[in-house]
Each structure stands twice: as C-alpha cells, then as structure tokens.
Design goal:
By secondary structure, the protein is of the alpha+beta class. The protein folds into four domains: 133 residues, Immunoglobulins (Immunoglobulin-like, Sandwich), CATH 2.60.40.10; 94 residues; 153 residues, Immunoglobulins (Immunoglobulin-like, Sandwich), CATH 2.60.40.10; 37 residues, no CATH class. It has four helices and 23 strands. Helix 1 packs antiparallel against helix 2. The longest helix is centred in the N-terminal third of the chain and has 41 residues. It is rod-shaped. The protein starts with 35 loop residues before the first strand and ends in a 6-residue tail after the last helix. The N terminus is likely disordered.
C-alpha cells in the first residue's frame, strides 16, 4: 500500500473554511458552492413580556461567476475531447482500411513451372495500428463522456439548489424564541421580522441554516451564519432632583462587514426638562410667582417617537389655607417631542385675600359662597404669614419614553417682607379722600364709601 503523511490541527472551530474545489486532477469531484449569511440584527428595548418583532437581514452568496468559469472550462474540454474523438475515429478508420487492404492483397508469386501461388501478407503492423487507434478512441470517448457528465452533474446541482429551503432561528440567552423558514436564490437578500415575546435584558442571536437543522450540502463557511446583539428592558431611570436630563438605550444594531466580523451600534433616547421664566424669584409673602415647565425628547433611532412627558406635578414648600402643597400642573402644549406646563389658575377672595384653585370653590370651608373672587393668574401664592427665607420647590414627571424615565426639577424663590409692606397709612379727609391723584384700582368708583361719611366726619348732624 502507499502511505501519505499529512499534518493537521483540531481546534474545534466549526467555522473553518470548507475547501470549495477538489484537488487538481480530480475536477470530476467539483464541489458546488453555497453560503448563507446573517447580515444584520436589531435589538429593541421593550418591557419583558411585550410582543415584539426583531429584524434580521439574511443573504446568500452568488457563486454563479465561479460556476460559469468552471462550465466554460469543461465545455472547452468537451470540444477538445470531441476533436480528439473525431481525429481518433479518422485514425481508426484509416487503420481499418489499411488492414482490410492488407488482407485483400495477398503476395502473388509464380514458380519456375509457371504455377501461381498466393500467400497472406503479414498484416501485424496494420493490426497493431488498428488496435492502437481503437484504444485511443475508447479513451477519447471515455474522456468526452466524463466531461459531459460534469456538465450534467453541474446542471443537476444548479437545479437542486436554485432556491433551497432553510430556516432562521432566533435565540435569547441561548434559548430559542422564534424561527422562520426561508428560501434564497443566489445573490438574494431578505429582511425577516421574527415575532416573539420579550424575555428581558440579555443577548439575542439569529442564525441561518443552523447546526442540527442544516440543508444536505456543506457551506463554504459557517462563520457568517450567526449574528448577535445585546437587548435591553426599560431602565426606569429617575433623575436625581436637580438633574435635568436622563438617557436610555432604545436599540442595538449588529451589522456584518465581512464573513468574520460584525460591527455594533447603540441608539439612545434623551429626556430633558427645565423650569423656565420664574417670575418673580423674590417676592413678599401673600404674593404669587409663576413659571413654566418645558420638556424635550430626542430619540436617535426613531426621530418621531412621542416620548416626552405628558404630566407634571409640583411640590411646594408652602400653601395657603385649604390648598395642598402637591399640585398638578396644567399642560398647555404637547407634540410628542416637546411639552409645556404652567401652574393652574388661582383665585383670591377680594375680602379675605385667601387663595383658591377654583372661581367657585364650593367644596372649600374657607369660602362662604358670597365673596367675590379676583383672578390671581397662573401663580402659586405664599401665605401672608410665611416667614422670610429661601424656599425650594420641585416638579416631578411620571415615567415617559421607551425606558420609562422620569425627572425631578428644582428651583428656588425667596420671600422677603409681606404684602402689608405695600400699604401706606395716611389721614384721609372725608370730603376729599384723593386730593392729589385719582383713586387706585381698588377704590375707583367707590369713593362714595368715604365721601358719604362727610356729615358724620364734620359732625354736621350734631344737635
């Protein structure tokens, strides 16, 4: 027996390239090439248990140019073999003719007595020539038949694998969660959306033509069959009070750049909020201040995703009698990406100065149902007896965005002095209460309240 020594390594790498073509001299064993590839996978952030679709892009390599080259080579061999057969058939026919002539043309001799003698010629050379030509013809025909079988085999393989069915499986942390059958022609690319139920944070992997469920032909490589990416659940991040922006992952993408390599990208959402236009920041007790809350949302993956917060709640360090320190703000605008909130409209009793959150606070114990209400505007009022000092208020937002994030915004107002500081005491003449200037807004049209006291003031009715 003949022995052949080879060196090889066993490294357990199932992705090692498979030799696509046979060794020289064994071209009859041409290996049909096929290669599937998982090219892209997207990981969507979602709540555990939510039904989602995971995008997976797959493709099949195109080896037709390689086969066309092989087919051309074999067809050239067929033409050469056919020419060789034709030439060898001509040689055989010529040798057959020579042998026939040799056998039909015996040696003719006439002896001394005049007798004619005929002897068979030695046609061994012609016979050998014919045998040689016949042998070469058999080999030429065998060679031609072999080349034709290569084309027939190639045609059969092309027909069989023109659109083979395989499967794509999706796994979450190693456990299969979805699969889908697929057919691909050479050079074709397809995008699948695999339905499954989100299992939480982890790693998802898609694999085409996976081990244990592969088609009956070996691929040129299996390195590019799987592709994976990270997947996340909502972070529920709550910004610390004073932090005006929070950020969360919304999508991961892994994309193939070669048979051996993939690159990954991460996409985020950002939620921000601010307390703007605080007026006034310094005030007397008994007065109110106003402000606005502005929210902004940005999603790097889906620019139109409506992720801004839709509610806002203020927590104040003080409140007038009958009011709660926690107050929902009123939304005045929201387009999904930005939103604006203002304090609710407040109303003041014209007589007592108490603050109410309704023009007719019928449920309040501090309103007798008769007092006239003054429109206090969109403000929050400090009680008249509130001491001087700096006071911090907060505004919190409920979970918003894909990651269900929330904010806690803070700002500060300073109370210095009281509303009573704005009153001026002076003597008033009953018949001329406003000698220099016109009455203020709260006395306009009511001067008679004082002038009607003239007789009493001057004791004109005294007896």
């Amino acid at each position: 027996s003949n022995e052949k020594t080879v060196n090889f390594n066993v490294d357990g790498n199932c992705g090692t390239e498979v030799t696509p073509n046979p060794d020289p001299g064994n071209e009859d064993d041409y290996k049909f090439k096929i290669d599937f590839s998982a090219d892209r996978i997207e990981g969507e952030t979602a709540r555990e248990g939510k039904n989602i679709k995971t995008r997976v892009d797959v493709s099949r390599d195109n080896f037709k140019p390689d086969r066309d080259e092989y087919r051309t080579k074999v067809n050239n061999n067929i033409n050469k073999s056919q020419q060789e057969v034709n030439s060898t058939e001509s040689d055989r026919d010529s040798a057959q003719s020579s042998l026939s002539y040799c056998r039909r043309d015996p040696i003719h001799e006439i002896d001394a007595e005049g007798n004619h003698h005929y002897y068979d010629r030695d046609c061994s050379w012609e016979e050998n020539r014919l045998d040689n030509a016949a042998g070469r013809l058999d080999k030429a025909r065998e060679k031609l038949d072999k080349e034709k079988k290569k084309i027939k085999k190639l045609d059969g393989l092309e027909e069989k694998y023109v659109n083979p069915e395989t499967v794509v499986v999706l796994k979450h942390n190693g456990q299969q969660v979805a699969s889908q059958k697929i057919r691909l022609t050479e050079g074709e690319k397809k995008t699948l959306n695999l339905d499954w139920q989100h299992k939480g944070k982890g790693t998802i992997q898609a694999e085409i033509n996976p081990a244990g469920n592969r088609i009956d032909i070996e691929e040129t490589t299996y390195k590019n069959n799987p592709i994976k990416t990270a997947i996340y659940a909502p972070s529920h991040e709550k910004g610390m009070c004073g932090v005006t922006s929070v950020k969360g992952m919304v999508e991961t993408v892994s994309e193939r750049v070669s048979k051996d390599e993939t690159v990954g990208e991460m996409y985020y959402e950002t939620l921000s909020g601010s307390i703007d236009n605080l007026v006034p920041s310094k005030l007397h007790s008994g007065y109110g201040f106003t402000y606005e809350i502005n929210g902004k949302y940005r999603n790097d993956w889906n620019a139109n995703y409506p992720g801004v917060f839709t509610e806002a709640t203020a927590q104040y360090p003080f409140a007038d009698e009958g009011l709660k320190t926690t107050q929902d703000l009123e939304r005045v605008s929201n387009n999904g990406l930005t939103s604006k909130f203002l304090p609710k409209n407040m109303y003041l009793s014209e007589i007592t100065g108490l603050v109410f959150d309704s023009k007719r606070p019928t449920k309040s114990l501090y309103w007798d149902g008769q007092e006239k209400m003054i429109d206090g505007g969109r403000k929050w009022y400090a009680p008249l007896k509130k001491k001087d000092g700096k006071y911090t208020f907060t505004v919190e937002t409920p979970p918003a965005g894909i990651n269900e994030m929330s904010l806690c915004m803070t700002n500060q107002v300073e109370i210095k002095g009281a509303a009573y500081d704005d009153f001026v005491d002076r003597d008033v003449l009953a018949d001329l209460p406003f000698p220099v200037q016109t009455p203020g807004w709260n006395w306009a049209g009511k001067e008679h309240i004082i002038t009607d006291l003239s007789d009493w003031y001057y004791m004109k009715n005294r007896k």
